[in-house]
Each structure stands twice: as structure tokens, then as C-alpha cells.
Write a structure and sequence with these properties.
This protein is mainly alpha-helical. It contains 15 helices and two strands.
């Protein structure tokens, strides 16, 4: 019994356990507030509405339809994972990447012209799109590294530049733009630029958007995990993020770390665009605001405890409740209710480290009291 107690005691002291607990609390509080809003709108349907948001796949009576829907949710999660990793890598190096939407937009330009217009192989389009996003991200990195320009400000400004550049350059080209729908043409399953399914679609009732992209994002997660945990580059990025001056005195180039983090971060944001557009379930539409995924990636990264594995689960959770929110309109609810839940979770995710600090202080206080009691017993 004592061994079991000691095991759970040591488990709760681990940083990873604290992160999981605090993230779950954030998610739970967001869902509770969402349920209260549903009660205020329509109390008689609130419970069913909440069930629809959380267990949305259960709406389908046919098991094949459920499987198809589940596969679609997984495929839509992949781009958000990529964007979350983009935020995570830059944050580890002491940067706050608010320019993910702009980097995503620049990748869209490459995908549209080379994927839709030129019909190049999917892997080549993917690489070039990631390079384009990486170069765009490096603008903010260079400004930070050499002129100490705040990356948040430059990132936000670059978002708007990229947005209107993308709107303008795409809508002026008839080869990639469908003027009847005010959007770029969607990459079809017959295109060379479509990410192949490699048979994975058969596991999810033939859902065409389920494919190699899901395997690619898992590989990328593993690579980022190894990069941050096991490599010299990862060590230098984290050292720079923790204390740039101390890292410089230790012989680590702060400029180099910022540029590497910016390049990797931008490439990952570009990958998010690849997994969206080259899977064929979305296309670029004229918009007056930057893509939402750049900001959702922030919430997912923090809700996942800024850990490569954690963002897999946090990204799926956010996509899951967002998809569920679109299914409650028939009950008299607005789909924006799910957005409110997500927004609250986004807000609370900023307190993850604050809550962890409180838990740590409580733990230290408990250990101090235990030492004091032991001293009193001995005396």
C-alpha cells in the first residue's frame, strides 16, 4: 500500500503530470461555461446539445458514417497540429509567433500556382510551400535578431501583408481562381498535387481526405520531439529561450537560434497549409481577416503544455468540439457556442503555467510542513 502511495505521490510531482492536470482543468472549465450558455439559450435542449458537441460522431446511426466522420476529424486535426508545433518551436526559443497566419498564406500562393496551376507532384509542392512560408517567417526573425524588433508586432503586420498579397495575386489569375465561387480551385483526388491516401481511406469508410498526411504529421511530431529533447540545436534553442544573455555567455549564438527557430516555425506553418489544401477539403477564399488557424495554433500549443505529444491531443480536442458546434443548429443553438467554448479554453490555457506554479508552491509548502513536523517529533 505504501509503495502504491509513493508511486502516485512521485507521479503527481512530475512536470508532465501537472501539465496534463492543468490542461484538463482548462478544458473542463470551458465546457462548463459552454453548457451554462446552452442552458440560458434553451434549457430543455441544453443536455442534448452538449452531448452533440462532445459526442458528435454518435449522431450518425450508421457505423460506417461514424467511421467516415471520425476519419474526417482526424484529417482536419493534422493541419492544426502542424500550426501548434510552429508556435511551440518558436516559443521554446523565446519567440512568440503571431505570424503563423501570414506564413500559412504565403504557402497557399505556392500551393495554388504549383499545385492547381502547374499540377506538380504533391511532394514537390509541399517542399516548396514550406520553404516559402519559412522565408516569410525569416523576415520577422531577421528583424528580431539584428534590429530587436518585437516579433509579435512584426508578425501581426506581416499577416496582413501576406493576406492581401495572397488575395490579390490569386484572384488575378484565372488558372487558379474560380471567379464564380470567389475561391481558388480545390485540388482534386485525380491531381498529381493531391496527397495520396496510400490505402488509409479504406480504414475510414473510404473518406477521401484521409491519407498520407496523417502519417506525415506524426513523423513531424516525432522529429520535433527528438530535435527539442535530444539534439544540440534543440538544447541551444531552449537555452536561448530561457535566458538569451546566459546562453550567449555559454557560447550559444542568440542570432543563430532565433533564425533557426523562425525558419522551422515558418516551415511548420506552411505544412499546415499543405495538409489543408493538398488534402482537397478546403481552398483559399477571399477574406478580410487572416486565417484563423494561426491563432488556434496558439491555444492548442499552450493547452498541450507546449509539448509535441501534448499538442496532438489538444488539437484533436479543439477540432472535435468545433466540428460538434456545427451540428447543434437544428436544436436552436448557434454554432458559435462551440467557438465560445474554444475561446474560453484559449483564454484559460494562458493560465496553465500559472496553475502549475501554484501547484508547485503548494507542493513545496507541504514538504516544508512535513520537515517541520519531523523536527518536532525528533526534539
Amino acid at each position: 500500500m505504501n509503495k502504491i502511495k509513493m508511486f502516485f505521490s512521485s507521479l503527481t510531482k512530475k512536470d508532465g503530470t501537472k501539465t496534463v492536470v492543468t490542461s484538463l482543468w482548462c478544458a473542463l472549465l470551458g465546457l462548463i461555461l459552454g453548457f451554462i450558455i446552452l442552458l440560458c439559450i434553451n434549457a430543455s435542449q441544453a443536455a442534448y446539445g452538449m452531448t452533440s458537441v462532445l459526442g458528435n460522431y454518435m449522431i450518425f446511426s450508421n457505423p460506417q458514417d461514424r467511421l467516415n466522420y471520425f476519419g474526417q476529424t482526424l484529417a482536419k486535426t493534422a493541419p492544426l497540429i502542424a500550426m501548434s508545433l510552429s508556435i511551440l518551436v518558436s516559443y521554446k526559443a523565446g519567440l512568440f509567433n503571431l505570424g503563423g497566419s501570414g506564413q500559412y498564406s504565403m504557402a497557399v500562393v505556392v500551393i495554388s500556382f504549383l499545385g492547381v496551376g502547374a499540377n506538380l507532384p504533391w511532394w514537390l509542392v509541399m517542399i516548396l510551400a514550406m520553404i516559402a512560408a519559412s522565408i516569410w517567417s525569416l523576415i520577422s526573425g531577421l528583424l528580431k535578431a539584428f534590429f530587436n524588433v518585437n516579433e509579435v508586432i512584426s508578425g501581426i503586420m506581416l499577416n496582413w501583408i501576406a493576406l492581401y498579397f495572397t488575395n490579390g495575386i490569386l484572384s488575378s489569375n484565372s488558372k487558379v481562381w474560380d471567379s464564380s465561387h470567389s475561391e481558388s480551385f480545390t485540388i482534386s483526388t485525380t491531381s498529381n498535387s493531391y496527397i495520396p491516401s496510400v490505402g488509409l481511406n479504406n480504414l475510414f469508410a473510404g473518406n477521401s481526405i484521409v491519407g498520407l498526411g496523417m502519417i506525415l504529421i506524426i513523423i513531424v511530431v516525432i522529429i520535433i520531439f527528438i530535435l527539442l529533447k535530444k539534439s544540440t540545436i534543440g538544447y541551444e534553442l531552449k537555452a536561448t529561450g530561457l535566458n538569451g544573455d546566459a546562453a550567449r555567455y555559454a557560447g550559444i549564438s542568440k542570432v543563430k537560434s532565433i533564425l533557426i527557430a523562425s525558419a522551422i516555425s515558418g516551415a511548420l506553418a506552411g505544412l499546415a497549409a499543405v495538409l489543408n489544401l493538398q488534402n482537397g477539403f478546403t481552398s483559399w477564399r477571399l477574406s478580410s481577416t487572416p486565417p484563423e488557424i494561426g491563432f488556434l495554433g496558439i491555444s492548442s500549443a499552450f493547452l498541450g503544455g507546449l509539448h509535441p505529444i501534448g499538442v496532438i491531443f489538444s488539437s484533436y480536442f479543439i477540432v472535435h468540439i468545433t466540428e460538434g458546434g456545427s451540428m447543434i443548429t437544428d436544436l436552436g443553438f448557434s454554432p458559435e457556442v462551440a467557438s465560445i467554448m474554444t475561446s474560453v479554453i484559449i483564454y484559460l490555457s494562458g493560465f496553465v503555467f500559472f496553475i502549475k506554479e501554484i501547484m508547485h508552491r503548494h507542493e513545496l509548502k507541504g514538504e516544508f510542513n512535513k520537515i517541520s513536523r519531523d523536527k518536532e517529533v525528533r526534539t
